[in-house]
Amino acid sequence: MARLEVDSLTKSYGSVQALSHTSFAVEAGEVFGFVGSNGSGKTTTMRIMLGVLEPDAGEVRWQGRPLDREVRRRIGYMPEERGLYPRMKAGDQLVYLARLYGLDTAAAQQAMERWTTRLGIGERVGDEVQKLSLGNQQRVQLAAALTHSPDILVLDEPFSGLDPVAVEVMSEVLREESARGAPVLFSSHQLDLVERLCDRVGIIKNGRMVASGTLDELRRTEHPQWILDGPAGTSWVTDIEGARVIANEGSRTTVEVRRPGAEQQVLQAALALGPVREFAPARPSLTDLYRDVVSSDDPKEGER
Ligand SMILES: Nc1ncnc2c1ncn2[C@@H]1O[C@H](COP(=O)(O)OP(=O)(O)OP(=O)(O)O)[C@@H](O)[C@H]1O
């Protein structure tokens, strides 16, 4: 089956436990957002996928088989430390890298032209990489990950430092690559972008995958929240069992419901005091979910 599986990866650097039984899977044709605080283990996971690092335990599989050199050659990788030669012209560099991946000169040239045009840097291929802006260097780096039409894409913070137009282009390209059938895995701290772009999200904390799934699946693991626009303040909620105020601003109150039916009591209590202008379930954003998961002392260890 065409899926990229990370199975119970464990890795220490000396006394630092970077990964601890980290598991998740990215299906072919899916965009997967890999999020977590600084130092939570994202880059370590990706480096293990690429074979740059050896895990202490666990493995990564593609189509059910452990990744070997051949499969790794079919990965398009954008490393966090951008690995371009500063004095080489962008176009020459892309052709050179594509040839390392096995394309002949004509195909490499064609792929370079196609991707630099697509990524909006067609005019800059004659410039030395060091003379490009950081954002344009990043576009070159993405082009380098794409020229050999990879089967799998693994991108370490591809969006950091990009302007809004470049973010849009990069997002479209990732969507197109997944539609072509590649699993696309990328890390990012831009949670609004991850929410918009990804089919599924994995949240890693201290080297453990603490939540993964579609946004709706992640929301289902939470206690439902309701927003009510009615009485001012929060004192009218305090006596309702299974209802807890988590935010209040003037007449707008967000209530977390820990007992089914408690939301109806919240509504009745509000109506008893006056008009209710709005009463609706809240849909927490990825930022809200992330905050809850990452600040929780009780990670759902090993959850997939
Ligand atoms: N070469 C190394 N030697 C020692 N410790 C390391 C090394 N590389 C990473 N670490 C440690 O391993 C842990 C995981 O780091 P990693 O770079 O994988 O995190 P990350 O999630 O990619 O972080 P960021 O979001 O900041 O890029 C951190 O505690 C980090 O300090």
Automatic annotation (TrEMBL):
Keywords: ATP-binding, Nucleotide-binding, Transport
SUPFAM superfamilies, per database record: P-loop containing nucleoside triphosphate hydrolases
Transmembrane segments: none
Residue intervals of the ABC transporter domain: 4-231
Domain of life: Bacteria
Molecular functions per Gene Ontology: ATP binding; ATP hydrolysis activity
PROSITE patterns cross-referenced by the UniProt entry: ABC_TRANSPORTER_1 (PS00211), ABC_TRANSPORTER_2 (PS50893)
InterPro entries: AAA+_ATPase, ABC_transporter-like_ATP-bd, ABC_transporter-like_CS, DrrA1/2-like_C, P-loop_NTPase
Record's keyword annotation contains Lipid metabolism: no
Family: Belongs to the ABC transporter superfamily.
Name of the protein: ATP-binding cassette domain-containing protein
Annotated source species: Aeromicrobium phragmitis
